[in-house]
Write a structure and sequence with these properties.
Chains A, B: It catalyses: cytidine(34) in elongator tRNA(Met) + acetate + ATP = N(4)-acetylcytidine(34) in elongator tRNA(Met) + AMP + diphosphate. The structure is a homodimer of 405-residue chains. By secondary structure, chain A is α/β, with parallel strands linked by helices. Among the domains of chain A are: 198 residues; 79 residues, no CATH class. Chain A has 20 helices and eight strands. In chain A, α2 runs antiparallel to α11, α4 crosses α8 and α12 crosses α14. The relative contact order of chain A is 0.15. The interface between A and B is medium-sized, with 22 and 22 residues.
């Protein structure tokens, strides 16, 4: 069975994702779509709107065959580590094709850019340093360096978020020396070029989340941008848990942590650079909300995303040492859900699998899963107090979703 | 000016405290009453009902002349360290008499017990070990050891909480070799023997707090047990802060801490004995409330108070190392309030004081005050979210209360 892999967050699953899913299957001509999906915390350093279990169910309902978890040590990282983790897991689980959306939409341009980088590594890195010294953020510095060194139209614009990720996917495939074919579909054009997805049916996940928060969980504004299956799952979650998760729910805990931890403890946290520890403590003393806090901490030197990721690691108490120990490779694959096809595929795959497939937490004892467990524990505390225990227990008791055809 | 010292928590100040205060002044014939009062966390390992500032105001309103803070490193300890800290601070601030309430009520019996202990140290300690091996708690084992070794009526009953404290005060005075005269007044008899304080006007602080919590802050049940000044301060605090502080307000933070901290981090916390760290983590995973949590953690081996103190140190992230570094002596005196007489006394005292009097936090830079600051920060987080900042700022901005006569 031929499998295509996709890398997703589904926060939440919307019509744009449905298009990506359908195109991935069609262009790759694969029998199986495998999604590697971030767990409770996401790449922008945010808690997911709803838990990984509910988001896996959205994916399966929309036709994904297998959903596996992208572990915390990859899911909450900048593009290179994120991509490395996702690609190596998809490779481990046997995906021979990777399909991603990008602003560029031309896979040849990704190869060209990668080749160009190989040939001009030193010049390129010098230029990035120079750009950053002039006050640019890392993504802007990277993007500018490329444009300055090769003004041909075949260099992709690395200031665009999905191009950055795509580039890192292609690079990871190259670095790992694996036999995986990357394909890309144009992302921003989806809404305009396809009859079935007009601008009346496509909205970004960001705007969907914003609507959910401002309307207090009402779906009326967003119903046309999400499949019915997503709507049902969102509705069910909100009825049970009375809220969606967001940073403000975790603010009291982040504040508490910053007010009791010592400078030394904070300096050991992943992504807390020297000097930042005092800055975040002072900000925590002064701030009334997470938004307040972030605007006090923010400087030109760090992107908002970079700081949010740091806050996530402070919140989950993820140290530099433990992150470095386990982010080199994925030693397990956590299964979040599958359908009949997915099950058939996995039964075949298991015969020659080289890393364990974790369906139940109690059946895996590797120390490398501890960050996922801790992330789920902390994530549960952001629920309304009366629902915390239920969310907490989910990490231990929820079996992978199984969806019959 | 002759000063008598008293050791208090005033949680909250009630008629029994008023009696103790009046008797202390009368029996000692002192010009000045100085109270050393626990800060935000108390000897039983609990957050105080209301902040130290409001409790200091209660004390001044009732006639105490000077209120100073018993630092966290003494206030949250078992009787010996608690007493050592309180007595040495009172000695530093020039109190020549110490007046405490006790179940015994006979100061001679405290001396007799202390002398007896000196002469029979080895036998006594052996007996305690034996008793504890048989499953007794430390206080019971101590009390039994005494009774077994000297059945004379001059040995005080050290299973009674105020006798234990009193004994440790007398012992601390003796150990420090200071010139301070201890006097005691019978505590439980106060309600029965004095006309002005019948059982209709005396209730324990515990029952007063219980009433405040069960009635949702109403004073009608407790008005006859507290002075009007206390009633006004309680009423004002509840109107502003919408609650009184108690462990359940801190439970989400304790739970969060137990779910993110590593075993190693917890083992470094003061009073977390080896093996307890896993027990508390498992209990935190299962419990829905602080009460739940405590009943899961509780074993015969540890008293409820001992475990609550441990929880307080976990909550405030107080390590074994930092506690041991600063609990040997008090290097500062933090002033919480005074009246005219108190001010006159302090102006005299300052001329030959050997440790600094801290009126403003910004004027003292010793590292040894950090536990008080951290305790106040964490204490503030237990307030309703909209009141957290106000309570937090109090630690930095509140000057000592000054009450004119």
């Amino acid at each position: 069975m031929k499998a295509v892999g996709i890398v997703v967050e589904y926060n939440p699953f919307h019509n744009g994702h449905a298009y990506h899913l359908q195109q991935s299957r069609q262009i790759s001509d694969a029998d199986i779509v495998i999604a590697v999906m971030s767990g409770q915390f996401l790449q922008r350093g945010e808690p997911a709107l709803l838990p990984k279990w509910q988001r896996a169910k959205m994916a399966l309902s929309a036709g994904v065959d297998i959903v596996i978890e992208l572990p915390y040590q990859f899911a909450t990282q900048k593009a290179d580590t994120f991509a490395f983790g996702a690609v190596s897991l998809l490779s481990q689980i046997g995906a021979s094709i990777l399909c991603f959306g990008s602003e560029s939409g031309e896979i040849e341009h990704f190869y060209h850019t990668l080749q160009f980088l190989k040939n001009n590594k030193e010049k390129y890195e010098e230029r990035i340093k120079l750009n950053m010294a002039q006050g640019m953020s890392y993504p802007s510095a990277t993007s500018s360096a490329f444009l300055e060194l090769d003004p041909s139209e075949k260099i992709i614009d690395l200031s665009k978020p999905n191009n950055i990720l795509g580039f890192q996917y292609v690079k990871a495939i190259n670095d790992l020396g694996i036999n995986m074919r990357p394909i890309t579909i144009p992302r921003t054009k989806a809404g305009y070029h396809d009859e079935r997805f007009s601008s009346e049916t496509i909205a970004s996940a960001t705007s969907i989340r914003k609507s959910l928060f401002t309307t207090g969980g009402s779906l009326s504004e967003i119903n046309s941008y999400i499949p019915n299956t997503t709507a049902a799952i969102l509705d069910d979650y909100y009825r049970t848990y009375k809220q969606f998760q967001r940073w403000e729910n975790y603010w009291p805990f982040l504040k508490y942590r910053l007010l009791h931890a010592s400078g030394t403890e904070l300096r050991n946290i992943y992504e807390v650079e020297e000097g930042l520890e005092n800055r975040v403590i002072e900000a925590a003393l002064a701030a009334n909300s997470f938004k307040d806090f972030m605007s006090i901490v923010k400087t030109k030197r760090y992107t908002w995303t970079r700081l949010q990721r740091m806050c996530t690691h402070i919140l989950t108490n993820t140290t530099f040492d433990e992150m470095n120990e386990i982010m080199k490779e994925a030693n397990y694959i956590r299964l979040l859900g599958m359908n009949d096809n997915g099950r058939k595929y996995l039964n075949q795959w298991k015969k020659h699998a080289s890393i364990p497939l974790v369906s139940k937490l109690s059946s895996y004892h590797g120390d490398d899963i501890k960050l996922d467990i801790r992330a789920s524990r902390v994530y549960a505390l952001g629920a309304k107090e009366e629902m915390t225990q239920e969310l907490l227990q989910m990490e231990y008791k929820q079996p992978p979703f199984y969806m019959t055809n």
